[in-house]
Protein 1
Amino acid sequence: MYVSARSDYALRAMLAVAAASTGGAGGYGGDGAGLVKAAALAEAQGMPLSFLQGILLDLRRAGLLHSHRGTEGGYALTRPAAEISVGDVLRAVGGSLTSVRGLPAQDAGYHGVASGLQDVWLAVDGAIALVVDRTTLAELLVRESGTATA
Amino acid sequence: MYVSARSDYALRAMLAVAAASTGGAGGYGGDGAGLVKAAALAEAQGMPLSFLQGILLDLRRAGLLHSHRGTEGGYALTRPAAEISVGDVLRAVGGSLTSVRGLPAQDAGYHGVASGLQDVWLAVDGAIALVVDRTTLAELLVRESGTATA
DNA sequence: ACTCTTCCTACCAACTAAGTAGGATTACTG
DNA sequence: CAGTAATCCTACTTAGTTGGTAGGAAGAGT
């Protein structure tokens, strides 16, 4: 499994938004309705702002984020952090989880002695989905505050 | 999980070699000691020969294949197909199974609210390994002859 | 009006994957 | 001892993706 910078940033941004909303005003930019500015997210996790903006746009189009423009604008989660899984975020920015030579695992088009391979990739896809779909953002935030403190 | 063409070809080549060895002379190039020529493998699975040669070289260096030069040369498995797993082949040509932004999942270097992410990637890596390490080449060949005939 | 922020498009550099070409090396054959 | 057939190995080319940047246009508040 290859996790691209895009997927990595997306998850970190979502976690930062969730932390700012649930944990109250922890030093981010959200003061009023829990909106967090893109610049604050980029700063908090050390991500390039311009690049992050494109990712936030994808997350909004996928329905995971709600945005507001203007002076007191920013981003917020559309659902509680406990109802957003890691898989949701990954699929929002990266398409399907498993791909063979750029194509989804379903239509790999094997023949002859290699026919059995397709079942392997489907099994892998299921195994990955089991992990990333059962893990929610809220769970990761709890785990973080329990193990290490920023 | 992204399966590169290199990994895909490696698995198909290994399966073809295994089929030629165990199943006897099935129309490939191996006639004497069960050696299969690279050209026969390329033909059987529709892979570019020059590209395949580099992959076969990796598989040989990883100790999965045994090669022989000369007029009656070719490739053969060093172990029975039942003792070679899909994971063995993948690791021989592709390095580690899971990587975050090019680095192994172990040293991703998260901090702050993103600390919990590393556990997710490690869990994914374990889940993938469970699938690909439990599946052997022999198992795939049996599965193939049972479901579809080439 | 003015400022702030999200939104959106286009562009650039670096890297990797995929495939090609050509020759050196080894082994068998007559 | 040639000659041939195959693996072996290195270098190169090409195309696509990734990561990142720049510069505005559009909306929201004061």
Protein 2
Amino acid sequence: MNSEDLLKLDNQLCFAIYACSREITRLYRPILDKLELTYPQFLTLTVLWEHERLTVKDIGELLYLDSGTLTPMLKRMEAMDLLSRVRASDDERKVFVELTSKGIKLREDALELPEKCIPHFGLGKGEYTDLLFKMNQLIGNLQKVTR
Amino acid sequence: MNSEDLLKLDNQLCFAIYACSREITRLYRPILDKLELTYPQFLTLTVLWEHERLTVKDIGELLYLDSGTLTPMLKRMEAMDLLSRVRASDDERKVFVELTSKGIKLREDALELPEKCIPHFGLGKGEYTDLLFKMNQLIGNLQKVTR
DNA sequence: GTAAATTTAATTGCGTACAATTAAATAGAC
DNA sequence: GTCTATTTAATTGTACGCAATTAAATTTAC
């Protein structure tokens, strides 16, 4: 494709991905609302369900977010009693984030989010896995350039 | 995959797409900065390069954005002398958006954005087209549910 | 051992996203 | 023709997302 064609909206993969990301969030929103979570908050809980205790930096590396995004979001989630933020005693630059019992318990209710929503993607099992692999590959390629 | 597995970050296609969207924006940013544009502003120009004159609603339907996002962004772009906003005389609810000569001219410089960035995706020509098709298909599937 | 460099989180500021509401104009129902 | 419903954009308010800066703690270089 030449650069004229690449400029057309319909040929821009980046737009398709950007639009798709927002469409999925739209699909998730009713259940997220029920859980009283935003999508980035749900992702934050997801990594904490998997890791128990993480620094702000750890979360940032897992979700590709920086402290400018995370600090205020984590404070909101702390105010909601989903997690606690404690400055590390051995290295006072670090802040450990840990789930409260409420945050841990929320996992059971959150199980239905992917369970109920992913079928609406209309992808076969192989297609889902394949697309997941390709997107992760693309992320990897991009990071080679941008880091 | 069961719902326990689907909840894991590494298995969530939605996260891969969300992260990928932001990684692409990160890749685009140096050139966008040079053009003094944000990514959504670039998309808005893209549809106006293709259509000449669009209402706010038209732009919203093409980019899946609502007036809450578009109105302030279009005002900023008007202040940058990239486009004009004129209320339609036959139907005063509508606002027509049209590029200024500066907005039209910017297209030449913008050609290098996809031209230079897309090679960094590290995808073969077939892979790019294939992934584009699959993402658009997924968007279509999602819209069946959310509209 | 101390000065400089690095790391970590917080802060500031700007620009989206989007739900919800408002206000004005137009279309439809009768 | 008028009353109601719908359409369109704007407004308001909240929450990201990220660049740039700040401030404090720790590492390192010497």
